[in-house]
Design brief:
- By secondary structure, the protein is mostly helical.
- Helix content is about 70%, strand content about 0%.
- The protein has twelve helices and two strands; from the N terminus they run ααααββαααααααα.
- The protein has a two-stranded antiparallel ribbon.
- Strand 1 and strand 2 form a beta hairpin.
- Helix 5 runs antiparallel to helix 6 and helix 5 runs parallel beside helix 12.
- The chain is elongated and about 80 Å long.
Amino acid sequence: MMTTGASAGTSPPLPTLQNRERAGVWQRTLRSLLANRVAIVGIVILLIMVIAAVFAPVVAPYDPDWQERGDRLVGPLTRSAKTGNFYLLGTDPLGRDILSRLIFGARTSLMIGFLSVAVSAPVGVLLGLLSGYGRKWLDDTIMRVADIQLAFPFILLAMVIVSVLGPSIRNLILVLAVSGWVIYARVVRGQVMRLRQMEFVQSAEAVGCTWPRILFRHLMPNALTPAIVLVTFGLASMILLESSLSFLGLGVQPPTPSWGAMLNEARNYIAQAWWVSVMPGVAIMLTVLSVNFLGDWLRDILDPREQVN
């Protein structure tokens, strides 16, 4: 007896509707990215920064902490007549290669920025979910704590924490994480308060779903879209805040390379050697700009009003 290809199991299975929808989403996302040249530029710059930070010991031409006193304040694109070293971006007042310190500084600044967002975003999202769906007393408590924190100037809060705990990278991440959770909590709370009135949430409550299931299964996936966009802008903000605190001496301490600390060390040499302050400033600007470009694209692609049917 002859068997058909379907009964013999020789024909490939038809793609499910879910797989086709997933493939369509990826195709639309790729088309949107290729059509957005600004986003591509941002991703390329950010990838270069991340790769340089990860492979800093291999990429950096010199030891970032090595002081060559005979090569103090050597200009960019200059080969030292004393040591024969070629300095692409010049040297600082202690004779250290600026390019090498920028590369290792990228490791410090990006690590602090990513870890700060990785701590503040989940905490803020969780508190926003609890505030938006919980009882009124819980909502009032979380929002009043947020209001009190917003009433404190960030620099004053950072000075208090650093004065108590001491300046270090760990404490700097703690300061940035404490300052960053509020925006996530407020945005997610607003989304949850809007979503809890919709039929799918009320149906889940009617069939007896527990509040953790409603919170994490129904509300959180639908409230995360603005939080994802905020993460990108939050990363840019954390990099700027880390640079500001390091510039003030409250963040990364010497001799660890940091873009903000490099600006602090260069403030007395702006007129004498412009490259000492301009190079770390350009690195901060390019990194923050690339993250903002990526955030703008994510905001457009995740906004339902921008979706093309």
